[in-house]
Amino acid sequence: MGGYYEAYYESLRDGEYKFNLSQPKHYLQMNLWADPLPYSGIYAQFSASTWDNSALVKFDRGYAEKSFFEKTKLMLLYKEERHWVSSPLLYLVDTGKIQRNARGIRAEMWNLGGFAGQLIVSKDASEKDYEWYGSYFDSDGNSLVGRLDYTYRILKIGSNFIQRNKQYKISNSDGVFLSNPKYTNTLNSGDLTLYFSKFTFLTEAARSDSDWHDTSKENTALQTELRDFNLGPLGLNVSYFDYGRNFHAKSSKKFSGYDGNAEFGRKGFRGECLFLVPKKAVNLTYKYSYYDAEDIAVSNNPDLREDYNVVYSGIKEKNFWSFSELYIRMMGGINIRMGFETLAGSEDKRNMIFMIDGETQLQYCALIAKVVDIGGETYPGQKIVLAAEQKINISDNVQVFMRLADVRTDALSWQSGFFQLKYFIGYDFEMYLECGESWYTESLYSST
After folding, report:
1. From 287's CA, which of 297, 399, 428, 434 has a CA 20 to 30 Å away?
2. What is the mean pLDDT of residues 57-71?
3. Confidence check: pLDDT of 132 > 60
């Protein structure tokens, strides 16, 4: 048994207004697990919170599993994340796109004469949601995900079948029935992997058939990659991809709509080069991506929230992105990173990043500088970001952390501060006292 309890209390101030005290927020999470039989397991997560009035205690997620003959496993799932299968290049399955509130069964097998496989069958919980026109009710939704692969020496081949079904009952604001549409999205894919001593070769192809969108043509996706190709201190990854403009995958963030990356309709290359300077703790990295694509606008379908509309401009752009980095590890635990990023095509930008940091048993310190959109004329223009982070272990139980940031442009400027006092009570109990918001100054050193 495990879990944690969290009490959250905050005070706010906006400009000249006095402090406003919010109501205390409480959250309790309990995790229970057991092994009642050999090769079996049960897990359940419960929670209670003051900001959710739907139930006193909620059953968040859980599973029960049993292995047979050390080569097969059967699992019962309740809102559980284990909806994934391997899709080595196209990433056709994203757990969050299928899991949601689903109940289902997962079966696995492995080491059966070189064969392995997974099968997941799940059904969504019925949910009612509201739109501008009234409401829609997810009356029937289910998923079928299956994979079979075979491995022999340096060869691995695999195939996926993924189907996502949805049926809705749509009513207007007066509760009058409007329609009862049903949608299906089916994916079939195959992949091949060859393992060599100096590199790995992978390729994956897939086809999409859907009545959510037009998939009568240009509904395939292909990607081929040469991975981990090593020539002494030089390492290379090179990939070619061709994603059809009508290749839609409801199970994948990569090929879905407004809540995903919407990478359909792209054709090009991407790669990475890593050079380890001999006898020096110095890394040189170069990453790039080049592809042709039409300018598109992806928006929420106003008639159904879970659907999306794609509008193509008819104008093709050549898009290029690159990121170059120098990473130096010095004596005394000090690290220096310098990066330069360029974007060209539908978006033209140049960004520069610098960070120096160091850590000892007592403290961590970092200085970060970024110049975003160098020479940019689009509002708000070029941005200069300066930030400092420090973490100090005052004792075995007390830790202090702070982050200060200053951002300046031609049109505006702002400053940010985040301070945290952490106290380790013991027995996995912790207490925090925080001032300021942290989320918008986290991960300041990044390539984007």
Report:
1. 297
2. 92
3. no
